[in-house]
Amino acid sequence: MPIQDPPSPASAPVALQVIPREGHNISRKDISPNAVRVLYRLRDAGFAACLVGGAVRDLLVGGKPKDFDIATDATPEEVKSLFRNCRLIGRRFRLAHVVFGREIIEVATFRANTDDGSGDRELHEGGRLLRDNVYGTIEEDAVRRDFTANALYYAIEDFSVRDYVGGFEDVRNRVLKLIGDPEARYREDPVRMLRAVRLAAKLDFSIDPATAEPLPRLAPLLRESAPARLFEECLKMFLSGHAEASFLGLEKHGLLAALFPETAAALAANRSGALRRMLVEGLRGTDARVAAGEPVSPAFLFALLLWPAYCRQLMALQAQGMHAAEAQRRAADRVTLHQLQVVALPRRFSTPMQEIWLLQSRFGQRKRVGRLLAHPRFRAAFDFLALREVASPEHAEDVAFWREAQGDLAQDATEAGGDGDDEAGAPPARRRRRRRRSDGRTG
Fold first, then answer.
1. Catalytic annotation present for 181
2. pTM for the complete prediction?
3. Which one of 73, 132, 146, 170 is the catalytic residue?
4. pLDDT tens-digit map of 372-419
5. What are the extents of the domains in the chain?
6. I need a surface site. Which of 56, 109, 218, 421 has the fewest CB within 10 A?
7. Cα–chain-centroid distance for residue 34?
8. 204 in catalytic set
């Protein structure tokens, strides 16, 4: 690998620093054996290849990476020629995926900062990067990465860490810092703003002041991003065990209103702060479930994130004199439709999300108890009701009633020889009585 100062876009380029094996804590035993296999095969074929990005960063802070990415000077086609279990993907970024059963090792070719016309790069007139397949050197590759903490390379030939942009020191100081001019980098890819918040939450890093400063100003750029991509980023932020810290980061850096505009407006209008308390407590519970290895439903998550918006819309419709049931349906549809313009929430999640909301009004009626207990969304809706008690103690009586009702049903099921729960986690429906016809027969 060549050793020289990179053509860094940063105002103060940092010379290459090689951290030898004794100077860091990364061990091959902590790296996926499949990733090590790919690294050695590329090396043996005469190519430069390094473990790069989040895996190196996470290993340095004592974490356990889930993904192991590799950077190399081999082109995607050359990588594919070395591995029969390889497929090429992507248009915006051409990548090689080497598949080992359920594990995928992603291999990317070193990319350059500038295009001499021989590469494949396309920029939006606003500066957003639409396609970037211009290959270069490892030095160029380092400075075109997003954060300094993600631009560290673990070299398999001598087990050293190669640092071209000062990322090793930033990781030691637990600081997240963009490479280059922050505003230009955010304009290249607005989703980087969400990544900054997510990574800071995940790693318990602070965000460098220069990296944080443009966030509130450039937040509207998120509306230019594909809604499907923002949905995926939301799942990463809120379902990886750092939901509460991510939410607080979005608030702090002025990004919440860009991602969840109606929720942000509702929270600002809620003077008591009850809705925010409920939301934060719910995210804290989500983190606890992830930490315990328990499943978390995106439908429940979005029901929580958009609940303040639903409540505000419902109050507005009822103030216009609309019947309660109709207002609930209209509010659910409007909030969902408006949010879909920003984040592409699939119907398989938006439908149960709405059902969780609409079932809330039935808890106060206490009619047809057995039917409500048998509803496939009852468990999620009841958990949501219990969460609402955090915001308002007026729900305590309903929570107690329905908790007791579930206990009674479980007891009945046990006495009948069942276990009280079906495979989906919802209580089984009571057996319906056959209705007697007027002629004395049953049917």
1. no
2. 0.82
3. 146
4. 999 999 999 999 999 999 888 889 999 999 999 988 665 655 555 544
5. 1-179, 237-241+254-415
6. 421
7. 26
8. no
